[in-house]
Amino acid sequence: MHHTSQFPRPKSRRFMAVLVVAAAAVFLLLSMQGSARAETCVGGKFCVWTGTSYTGSELNFSCSGGTFTGLELLSAQNHCGVNVRIGWTEGGTTNWKACMVPGGLRPEPGRFNQVLPNGC
Fold it and tell me: What is the pTM of this model?
């Protein structure tokens, strides 16, 4: 018994090429969204996002004091004039993940919920 596919086969390679180009354009547009959002973080603050690559909700912190956010954060930028340490605090202990220099970018440092300026 012969079964006919319910999906028509493309008739030309040009059609497939158009599909590949369209998929690439969508991917590029989505990847640019994260970097465009990162440009909202400017001097004098430490910025964090709930998603990787500067996506999700953005929070901005003062450069003067440590902060335990209580949130799982997944990307950060340091626009303070000092080093800032990020880490994960749980059960009273902190696992320090990274020391970010001024201008430092961390699109995917792993989860963190602690921010400590001048902590490095």
Answer: 0.66
